[in-house]
Amino acid sequence: MPAPAPHHSRYWTALSVLLIGAGLALWLVQGDVQLWFHAWRQVLALQHLSADLTTLGLLIVGMILSWSSAGLLTTLLKNSGPLASQTGLIFGKAAAFFPIHALTWAFLGQWIGKLGHPIWTLMPTEIATAHLPALDRLALSLWTWVPALALLCLPLTGQWLSLLLRTSPPLPPATEAEEIIERNVSTPHLFSPQREEGQLPGPSIIQWHTSTQLPPPARMVKSSQPEPSPSPVQPGLWSSGLLALVLLIIIEDTLGLSGTAAALAQHWRAYDLTAAASSLLSLTCITLLWTLIVGGPSPWSVKTLRHGLAALLKVIAWSLLLLTLATSSFRLPLPWFQVISADTAFTSPVTVLWAGLLPMLCALSFWLLGHIISPRNPPPTHA
Amino acid sequence: MAWTRALLFSLPLAALGVGGWSAWRVSQSTREQDRDLVMLLPGALPALNPFLPANEAERQLLDLIHEPLIRLDREGRLGTALAEQWGWHQNMTCWFASPEAAKAAATAVNDQPVEKRASWDLESVTQDRSSLVLRFSHPGSTVADEVLAVLSTQQPQHLAFLRIASGPETRAAIQAYAAHADHAPSTKRLWFDDDGTCELVTTRTGLQAQQSLMDWLRTRQPILPEITPMAEVTALLEPVLEFRLKADARWADGTAITAADVKATLDDVLPRPWPLPGRDAFRHIQNITAPEPGVVQVIYRKRHSPALPAWAALPILPAAWLKKTHDSFATTPPPGAGLWQITHRDNRRLWLEKRNTEPREKLQVLAATSPIQARVGLATGAFDILWPAPEDRTTLGKAADLRLVPTPPHNQLMLVWQTEAPQLRELRVRIALSLALDRRALSREMPGGTARLHDSFFPPGRWFSKGQTTLRQDLRAAEQQLAEAGWLRDVSGQLKKGGAVFELRIVIPAGNADRQRLAEALAASWKKLGISVEIIGSPPDRYVADLRGGRFDVALLGGELEPGWDVLPLWHSSHTDGRGLNLSRIADAQLDLLLEALMGEFDPAQIPRRTAAIESRLATLRPALPLFTDVAEMAVRLTRFPGLPELDTERGITLRELLPATQRQSRPTVKFEMLAPKASEPPAPVPPKKPAKLEMLAPD
User: What are the backbone angles phi and psi of residue B417, rounded to the nearest 5°?
Assistant: First the structure.
């Protein structure tokens, strides 16, 4: 039996985040400790406060919106049957793996290139708003943030959807549950190899299905002393937050928002490594704050080779996504990924979407393979 | 639980509603027609250092914000700016033993017959204690000896010139010497060059002054500089340039622009290592004074007629601002006296407002920090003027409502032949190499794939510039010239003379991709003649030294176009000593005389004749081959500039000329074209009824 998750995991995670961030910043300034300290001083002097608040604000609002959207979708899908849930899980993961830069460019291509509508942050001309009603001025101001949040919410909602659907599978029909109980009662002893394992519903099911009579296996689970397991939402929160920060690097950068995440990409491209280190440290601090608020990821344990292989395939899937994003944002020379140009996006937004399809399918294939070969009742993880 | 359910259902729907409403409102918003003019710059906002523009866009913005004393107009002539009048004079200054002697000398001059004084062009005689200043209306007056003969009755003191070959570190010590009570009465002039070299004018004898200065410096300087007594004279002849400022020439805060601002600007900018056009001319300034309010008097230490057009490239800054700001304009752009003023600035935007206009005209300048901003602006119609990056050109070509408009050139590029190189010593060879080049094809190798052909040794578009001629590629003629020079192809097609292979070294600054591309195109052209060409990249810090040392056969020499006609340093034989700019090492007595005559020519009407003579001589000698001038373009939205078709864009237009074109001209444009007889041609009979051509260009 795996050891229960220690309560101080968030502090260990926070420490790890801090060390990794600081280490990466030191690597960015090529080991120059003076520059590293300078970058720290800039962060601690709150020189990037407005940029930090931009990124943190987008992160929090994006997380809340995507979580609630995914919750709504999960409820709808679960009520539509197991097939819908499985389809929702795959589509959710596909949305999470779809390269955000392709999505962003396709949006820009359609909204600006085809429709000729503005994005303030990219074209900061002063619009004469003085004569407009307050509500209209509010609408125009909101538009600064709406595209970024919408683009952030799409993959995040997909990720949340897949997490929620995996951690709260549909209940078996009552008749099926009775059959299982029947078979189990007729089994000579509990440790017999012929005994069929009961499928235990997750805690979310228990939370969301209060209005229905719980079937016997669930009642058994409730009445017995369950194995302490972390909430299905908490580990997802931490990792989804991390994913959101990565996505924000591309979204802020492409949409011209003045956030810390965009600053990291821009400084990197300009070879201003000290400034990039400073931005990276700011992002580290945001991640640190996020970790302290929502807690760390659930502990991972590789019990069998099957577990290990499944985890490896999922890691490959996420790495593929990260490499795709790095190609776009940091101009890393990875020739097997197509770099999307503004020309292509503005001429044909659909082409850009197609360009994102291949990396998405690639990553999704690896993840699905990992999902298929993983044990039937794996511990809930953020993967 | 109910709260969770409410959150689950309401939040996404509310967000969707708010986002959708916001998007719908934005899609309904349209640009207003009477909004500010919007200009998009590639990259970050410029620093707006008036002496160090990074690109053409910044230069044009600076041209709006700042104002020099005089300007070059559309025809390339000198026109008014802060100054409404200007003129050259000459001061003759003599020092006497006593004020009484000076007074007596003044009386002697004033007692001369009026006719004689008029023939001297004498404007005034002013006594200042023991000195007498005679002001002549023309510089370079040849009557100095006659006047001195009149003054000699009062025995004016002799003046000795000392040249001190010192470095900048000695400057303070020499200034202290000149200001010391023992030496100040005898020290009449003190002038420092950029490198610290000093010239001192004293009423002591050369040897006395030399000894005195050596004694002074010996205790103050570890190494004694070389001090050389130069010529001794009786009177100091100094050209004086006088500007009368416009009555409404004022800073934005309402204070008047004065000579102090002009002096402070020069004092601030000259010590800085910035590429100031006309720097050589400014170096010769002895002093700047204000003899009366609204007048700026610039006293030069030597006759140098290009000193006047140099003022057209010097924006004047407020002395008060310069006094309290010492950051090399890195963080705060200086205020200017131009028509447009910066009213607000943030990280990505800059607002300019035209002074004294109702309704207020505004120009919003945006920095395209994201590479797609040009595309966004193009799609949304959000800008009126764009300074395109090379990658934007394809997109701009498809935009029907935008027109690319060239700006006037600011840089030129020429091929310099090292005329002392064995294979290039002969004129025929240099002609052949020139004939082998297709300059139109070469221009496609220039940055951005465009350049203006230029075949003059003087800047284009000035009143003294010659018209464009066509130099065509003619390989057959080139081969014939080479054959006549003894260079013949062998069986392998290689050009040889007496067994020696024709080899050329093109020297370019290492790491300069643009120059490398052009050099390769040049090499390909010359290889067709059988010449073996090697391209050598010289480290940028050694490039000029290599050229001055003659370690090249052909060099690509680029440079900023000077506002005037000062080409003497490039071609005069006195500048071939390894320190000057005569890189071709051409040494021709006739050319030297022509260049010197041009430098001493203060009559603007005579400048074209003199430049034509130099042009002709240089075309004969061929020390270099002018190639191109640069082309920068701005994309202009036609619907916002209805007056654009009325502008002559052939020579290139400036932002200053473009901005008023937001409205059509409300009155007919009158274009005068003077039909003056050409100096080199016999006078043609002038039609009796049509002495001048008057064209009326009515608006559409």
Answer: -90, 140
Decide if B7 touches A, using CB distance below 8 A: yes
Task: List residues of A whose CB lies inside 8 A of any B CB.
Answer: 64-65, 68-69, 71-72, 75, 108, 112-113, 115-119, 122-128, 136, 139-140, 142-143, 146, 149-150, 153, 207, 210, 253-254, 256, 266, 342-343, 346
Minimal CA separation from A240 to chain B, in Å: 18
Question: Judged by CB atoms within 8 Å, which residues 73-112 of B form the interface with A?
Answer: none
Confidence of residue B694 (pLDDT cuts 50, 70, 90): very low
Distance CA A159, CA A89 (A): 9
Cβ(A356)–Cβ(A109) under 8 Å?
Answer: no
Q: How many whole angstroms separate alpha carbon A24 and alpha carbon B634? A: 43
Is the pLDDT at B631 greater than 80? The verdict is yes
Q: Is the per-residue pLDDT at B680 higher than 80? A: no
A144 close to A129: Cβ distance less than 8 angstroms: no
Nearest residue to B263 (alpha-carbon basis) of B323, B305, B325 = B323
* Residue B398 touches partner A, C-beta closer than 8 Å: no
Listed residue (B510, B536, B512, B513) closest to B523, CA to CA = B536
Query: Are B8 and A75 inside 8 Å of each other by CB?
Result: yes
Q: Do B22 and A146 touch (CB under 8 A)?
A: yes
| Closest CB to A256 among B36, B370, B375 | B370
B352 neighbors B363 (Cβ within 8 angstroms): yes
- Among all residues of chain B, which has the CA nearest to that of A265? B370
**What secondary structure does DSSP assign to B508-561, as a single string?**
EETT-HHHHHHHHHHHHHHHTTT-EEEEEEEPHHHHHHHHHTT--SEEEEEEEP
Could A118 and B380 be called an inter-chain contact, meaning their C-beta atoms sit closer than 8 Å?
yes
- Report in angstroms the alpha-carbon separations of B294 from B256, B421, B425, B682: 9, 54, 54, 44
Identify the weakest region by mean pLDDT among A181-190, B38-47, B283-292, B408-417.
A181-190
Write the burial class of residue A126 (CB in 10 Å: 0-12 exposed, 13-18 middle, 19+ buried): middle
CA angle (A210, A214, A217) in 5-degree steps = 140
Confidence at residue B159, expressed as pLDDT on a 0 to 100 scale: 93
Q: How far apart are the C-alpha atoms of A26 and B335, rounded to whole Å?
A: 42
Contact A380, A298 (CB under 8 A): yes
Per the CB < 8 Å rule, is A124 touching B349?
Answer: yes
Residue B372: its chain A contacts at CB < 8 A?
Answer: 108, 122, 254, 342
Q: Which residues contact B509 (CB under 8 A, 6 or more apart)?
A: B515, B537, B538, B539, B540, B543
Q: What is the pLDDT of residues B173-192, one digit of tens each?
A: 999 999 999 999 999 999 88
Q: Do A116 and B383 touch (CB under 8 A)?
A: no
Of A71, A115, A136, the CB nearest to B25: A136
> What residue in B sits closest to A118 (Cα-Cα)?
B380
Residue B81 φ/ψ, nearest 5 degrees: -140, -105
Averaged pLDDT, B562-573 = 90
Chain B residue whose CA is closest to A71: B8
| Interface contact A140-B26, CB threshold 8 A | yes
Instruction: Give the integer Cα–Cα distance in Å for A202 and A200.
Output: 6
HEC string for A348-359: CHHHHHHHHHHH
Closest residue, chain B, to A253 (C-alpha): B370
CB B274 within 8 A of CB B313: no
pLDDT in tens, A198-250: 555 444 444 444 434 444 444 444 444 444 444 545 557 888 888 999 999 98
Q: Quick check: A98 pLDDT over 70?
A: yes
Q: Are residues A256 and B21, on separate chains, in Cβ contact within 8 Å?
A: no
Is B29 in Cβ contact with A127 (below 8 Å)? yes
CA pair distance A280, A118, nearest whole angstrom: 30
